[in-house]
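haha ok so turns out i had the wrong file open the whole time. this is the CORRECT one, sorry everyone. sequence first:
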Amino acid sequence: MTDWKLKTPVCLIIFKRPDITEKVFQAISKVKPPKLLVIADGPRPDKLGESEKCEATRQIIEGVDWDCEVLKNYSDVNLGLKHRVASGLDWVFETVEEAIILEDDCLPDPTFFRFCEELLEYYRHNQQIMVIAGTNFLFGWKPNNDSYYFTRYIDCWGWATWRRAWQHFDFEMKQWPECRDRNWLAEFLQDYEVAERWTKTFQATYDGYINSWAFRWKLACWLQNGFTIIPEINLVSNIGFDNPDSTNTINMDSLLANTLVQPLEFPLRHPLSISRDPQVDEFIQKIVFSGDSSYLRSKMANVWLNLTREELEDIPQQDIITRILSSRTIDQAITKKEKNLVQELMANMSNELNETKAIQNLLVAMLYMYPHQLPLQYDLSRIPQWLLNNYIKFLLEAPIFFKEMGESEEYSHHLRKVINTLHTYIFSNPTATNSQELALLLTLNVKFFMDFSPENLKEIYKKRAEIMEFSLTRQGYQLEYDFPERIPARSKIRLGIIVTNFEPNPETFATLSVYKHLNRDLFEIILYSTQASGHRIERYCSGHADAAVQLPEDLYNQVKTIRDDDLDLIFIASDITSQTNLITLLSLHRLARVQVVGMNSTATTGMSNVDYFISGKLSEVENCAQEHYTETLVMVEGPSQCFDFATEEQLLVTTSISRESLGIAQNAVVYISGVNFDKILPEVQAAWAQILARVPNSILVLYFLNHHSKLNSSEKAFKDRFLQVLGKHGLNENQLRFLEPLPNRADIKECLKNADIYLDSYPSSGMASLIDPLEAGLATVVKEGESARYRLGSSLLRELEVTNLIANSEEAYIQLAVALALNSQLREKTSEQIKQKMQRKPRFLDSRSYSAQMHALFQQFFSNYQANAITTKLRLRQVNLIIFPDWSQSEESLYEQLGALLIAMVTRPDRSNMTLLIDNSNISEEDANLLLSSVAMNLLMEEDLDVSDGPEISLIGQLSEIQWSVLIPRLYGRIVLERENIEAIAHAKAENIALFELDS
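then structure:
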């Protein structure tokens, strides 16, 4: 390459991105083209600051410092992408015969220029070759050993062409209507589905809905039956995906973003003949244009299984592997052929990762299976360093929903192993870069789903929290915080409530009851959210608080905003255990003097800065409940939560639902359930199928609890899976009805009128989802487990005293559901009983009484904090005595009284257990300390007293009413002086403190 010199003109297309333009310009400057043609669009007048960005970008071109003719085609006005590039390239090929073309975000390897120049010459007179591209998106797959391949698919992220090819470019696409009408693409592409896709694309481009010059160029090339040349390896990387000024390249998760480049070997190995490779066309169509993950997985499996150890050490190959593993091919359905491959892989997978093909087998297995389904390696020291981060990401992958019996338990065991492994790895070498990277991976992992594990989760959540705390600390976040001393004049307890948002969801309904009826003379309430919903319930919630704050976007300023408000307590209302979100990261910080979490988080947080966990007596197992929590567990009377539906209580029905509209016979037995599909285990599906099989003329109706308008692909996959389960039990698909998501609670209640029995899911049960069927008077069948997260639903039934609807095993659950279906009188009696109990406003719907319980708890929490703070500040001991000297009396009199008092205390045998508190409310601390020091020094010199064993002596200073209320119960007695500060005694309400005689 050192003897080669570029002769071909280079065209650079720029706009408003000086940072990345500079990088591409530097790449061009290294090969010193003799002619540089620059195309630039003008700024848009409505975009603030764009004119300056355009000028800064153009200024880069003035840095040409080699022998070069620079030609500029700059537009003063904004023409837009398609017009500017098209007109600019018209100018280029009016000026030169051939050119290498780069846009401002296409960063080439130096060999790209030689590759283009040699092939521009080699195929100069071959009319069939239209484009020489610099990109290769075959991800390591090589159809042959040539230096380049032929395809019909053009790419314009670094390319070259001739005037003789560009002359066919037709901006108006004049031939398209005729091509469309005679279905030319179907004949040309020989694939109906692909032709249909491109027909839509070209039509949208023709109609102006797609702002693209490139699709126009593609059509022009195809009309000439033209070929594109692509190199055997990637020579150009698009670096514009992570730039805030990017327009068309904004998806950072794209497989095509920031791909690595490699130098191409010369001399080129030319193909023996000019012919399109159908396999290359298929690959590009399916991956680049169709996003077919299944096809990509299949191709990569074949490539990776045949990689040598040397190829695995190749950095570009490692980059490809990382990209593919990040593309979630794991979610795609597996064909029968692939099942055989997976079985073979699992048989071949060895615990010894240094064995031949072990890594290759592992990589391919990672494309097809979730980690809990594989015989994996948990010894991280055995994983190659280049793979480690991606391996941890893979280990943390959670399935969208479980498909096999026992799978949820396998996943829970697996996740426990992963956390234990990570914890050991990180804290055995905390200064290592790998440790910090792996801790960050866990911290950023969104889903942490342990709800289906029947075991005590305390230790695993504690380790999870320790890893996240480690990660945030290493990133520079200050998790601990010393709050300033409270201003004595502040009489109210300042309470913060933090949630992700105030939307109509169970978290909001449960949170509102926490603070809605708190005494505002005693509490100041501030609501914090990370997202604004704009919903009416957000305004309603704000109306029951003193302030509502939407937090900044970044974590540092979120923490600062909350800390600046100097909170006494904060109630963390979002779920911070089954998922990691901004509220989770915030909760790792000390945000308030006291931090509290409730049952929106269904397990202990494990976090050192969360002090209390509020549950309910009807949710917890007696005697051993505290063993499951790192926080201090506090239990309210009744269920753990109360729901206030506020603005969503009285809504109008928007959907007409009847048995007739659902195609259900009037005499059918209708079971119904509201579901989050990811929580309906195969075991539950099988149980529901057994119930239907045992009850003649029965139907199960399911409605989704998330209120989006249409079923998404995951929910459809769940539906298909459930229908298969029914088939295995000899049932037909008409016995299962999935409803489109219902818009609001009124529609859900309207739907419930058509049902006979409500089936709660298990083992993890909810509370909010049961309120609607209970209000409808439906007999509600619940399975109860041993931990609080498995007793939420049953706690509602216990509150209603309908415990006959609670099953303690799966078989009991099935039998109960069947018995209710076969006995209409039992069903009606149960329904009436539920209706009567619900009319009496049970505690889980009585937000006023629930707020009263919260009022008492919050006061107790803050009192405990104040007690600890005062104990530390005043150095309280076992025997705490207080005096109220009259500091206005003469110094001689004060010396005499205090001296006698100190002598009496120092000579007591229990002095080491004593603290003497001295009120100094009407004298400065400095003056009081000066006088006390003088008294003590005189005693030491004159009386030869030893004060090393006590007592402690503390000046009280200025205390608030709240602080006095905390201190007084901790006082053993008051020593009466000859002259006292009567006003101070009255202010402290100390008249009733027991009097203490020192000689007693």
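The chain has a mean pLDDT of 92.
again sry for the mixup
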